[in-house]
From TrEMBL:
<protein>
    <submittedName>
        <fullName>Uncharacterized protein</fullName>
    </submittedName>
</protein>
<dbReference type="Pfam" id="PF01730">
    <property type="entry name" value="UreF"/>
</dbReference>
<keyword id="KW-0143">Chaperone</keyword>
<dbReference type="InterPro" id="IPR002639">
    <property type="entry name" value="UreF"/>
</dbReference>
<keyword id="KW-0996">Nickel insertion</keyword>
<comment type="similarity">
    <text>Belongs to the UreF family.</text>
</comment>
<feature type="compositionally biased region" description="Polar residues">
    <location>
        <begin position="98"/>
        <end position="113"/>
    </location>
</feature>
<feature type="region of interest" description="Disordered">
    <location>
        <begin position="83"/>
        <end position="115"/>
    </location>
</feature>
<dbReference type="GO" id="GO:0016151">
    <property type="term" value="F:nickel cation binding"/>
</dbReference>
<dbReference type="InterPro" id="IPR038277">
    <property type="entry name" value="UreF_sf"/>
</dbReference>
<feature type="compositionally biased region" description="Basic and acidic residues">
    <location>
        <begin position="83"/>
        <end position="96"/>
    </location>
</feature>
Length: 243
């Protein structure tokens, strides 16, 4: 039988997963309305898909990886240096997740204790600031909220089978991080964007970082093709062939 990790990947890739992906077309509907993508024109659709996936990969992967790393560090895992440049506060001070000293541009040295929820909120706000489209921000927040709800309702008590990383105390820490971040979103202290929420949940479910980043791109691609079918640009069989 498949391992629990493999089974979780099956579940997360399932189109029945209630992540709110149906609420947005990632710009495909607007591209169709403006004539950039035409019905029964696979070439124009393929060009749009390639451009959208390329843009999405570069704009979200650093946040998925950084959120995963923050949660991992929050439960005592190894610190990842992936996209550590995202760990910058509003004053421009470099923040280190090991609680060591950081230095601001004016040379002042301060000591910062690592708080995973605070770091996640800061990362989430950074994504908000870097996303110029109001429509994209709303869709991302809606899908991020759905991802957090999905974890709480369906996966919070899942044992991934790795006893060294999912012991009862570790699972409690993971749940506490998710609950605290959800509270920050509910209080409008953090927008709860999808890439950040996805990275959080991926680490909580013990997904390897490489699997998490690839799954994030797969889900975006699947959403695009589902929208293409809904907009009658391609049929379901051709959509699966393109995928």
């Amino acid at each position: 039988p498949p391992s629990t990790h493999t089974w979780l990947l099956y579940q997360l890739a399932d189109s029945a997963l209630p992540t709110g992906g149906f609420i947005a077309s990632a710009g495909l509907e607007a591209a169709t309305t403006s004539g950039i993508v035409k019905q029964n024109d696979l070439d124009s659709l393929s060009r749009f898909l390639a451009s959208s996936i390329h843009t999405y990969a570069h704009s979200t992967t650093p946040y998925v990886e950084r959120a995963w790393s923050i949660v991992n560090r929050g439960i005592g895992g190894e610190q990842s240096e992936l996209h550590d440049e995202l760990s910058v506060d509003a004053a421009g001070e470099r923040r280190h997740s090991n609680g060591a000293q950081s230095q601001s541009p004016n040379g002042t040295t301060t000591s910062q204790e690592f708080d995973p929820v605070e770091e996640l909120v800061r990362l989430d706000r950074l994504y908000e600031a870097c996303t110029s489209s109001a429509v994209a921000r709303r869709a991302s927040s809606a899908q991020g909220g759905a991802m957090l709800m999905l974890f709480s309702k369906s996966f919070a008590d899942v044992d991934t089978g790795d006893r060294t990383r999912t012991s009862a105390p570790t699972r409690r820490k993971l749940t506490d991080i998710v609950d605290a971040f959800k509270l920050a979103v509910r209080r409008d202290e953090s927008p709860g964007h999808l890439p950040v929420c996805f990275g959080i949940i991926a680490r909580c479910l013990d997904l390897e970082l490489a699997n998490a980043t690839h799954l994030n791109l797969f889900l975006h691609t699947r959403t695009l093709l589902s929208s293409a079918v809904r907009l009658n640009l391609v049929g379901p069989y051709l959509a699966q062939r393109v995928l």
